[in-house]
Structure formats: structure tokens, C-alpha cells
Amino acid sequence: xxxxxxxxxxxxxxxxxxxxxxxxxxxxxxxxxxxxxxxxxxxxxxxxxxxxxxxxxxxxxxxxxxxxxxxxxxxxxxxxxxxxxxxxxxxxxxxxxxxxxxxxxxxxxxxxxxxxxxxxxxxxxxxxxxxxxxxxxxxxxxxxxxxxxxxxxxxxxxxxxxxxxxxxxxxxxxxxxxxxxxxxxxxxxxxxxxxxxxxxxxxxxxxxxxxxx
Length: 213
Hints:
By secondary structure, the protein is mostly beta strands. It has 2 helices and 13 strands. Strands 2-4-5-13-12-6 form a 6-stranded antiparallel beta sheet, with no helix packed on it. The chain starts with a strand and ends in a 12-residue tail after the last strand.
């Protein structure tokens, strides 16, 4: 997992609204969640699951869609949209505390104040899937197979999709904010310390803005 200073593209607008769309239901047969760019890392064995696990099961995935307007645009200019965050919901209770999701080998003590651990995106797309299903989507690296087929159905621009691989295994995908970069995933816990969600922040919304609960 990469460590990179947190920043937003210079000149990008921060004015807009957030709405939540459902991506679909993701199966986690082992409870070990992987987040990565599927078009680069799926099937390579290079994407590792987070160290924090959840009970095996099926969990809802949703995404926060930012609708943005540049204040300098002419009146009537059509706003554009970006996927601001993606969330795997473990339980529908509010998060009382947040921690950075880590993979084996990550050490928070190694980070400077303005750095984060996150996964690298080189094809403008992120995803969630269970660690056991990495081999269930053959052909992805050759630009074919279930993930490419699912992505093709949503057309151009910000998008979310579900892909079904071999033996019914699933993958939840989403375009990644401003595109390529390094994006952190956060773990939300309730007041009892139980995991309620995993959220990948695509660094579209301002840091001091709460994403939809």
C-alpha cells in the first residue's frame, strides 16, 4: 500500500452537493476485505486484504456522488459529477471513531503528519472484494471478462457497478474521484468499538465536510 501526502488537485471546485447511491450487495465469504484498482491489481496477487476483518456475510456497498459547480462558470453551465467516496456497510449504526485501514506491513509510526496509507489507482477505478475471490475474474488483465463487461454497461463518466465472477463471487466497482492517485480507506467503529463500515475517500469533498452517514 502506498503512502502519500493528502492533497486535492489544484483549481478543482469544492462547491456542490453529495448524494448516496447504492452499488449493490457484496459477498465476503472470508470477511477479509480488499480495496484496489481492479484493472491493475485484480488477479495479480499484489493486492492484500486489510488487517481488520469482519464476520463473513453479505454487505451493502454504496457511494457518495458529488455534483459540482465551478462558481466561475457561466449561468446554466451543466454541473459535473464525481464519486467522492465508496462505503461498505457492516452495520447500520453511526461511526463514533475512525481509523486508517492498514494492510500487513503498514506502520503508522512511519507516516509524516501530512501522509496517509492508501491504494494506488492507475486506471481511474477502485473496488471492494473478498480476499478469497482474487482468481474468480480471469481475463481482467487482458481487458476482458466480467469486470470489463460490467464497467462497459455504465458508459462514460462517474459510475458504479457490480461484477459477478466465477462461482458467484462478486466485486463492487466505482470510478475514483478525480481519477488516478492514492486513496485512503477508513474504518468506522461505533461506541462499543465494533466495525460499522469501511470508507474509501476519493478526496473530492473538503476535509472538514462530513460524508453522508
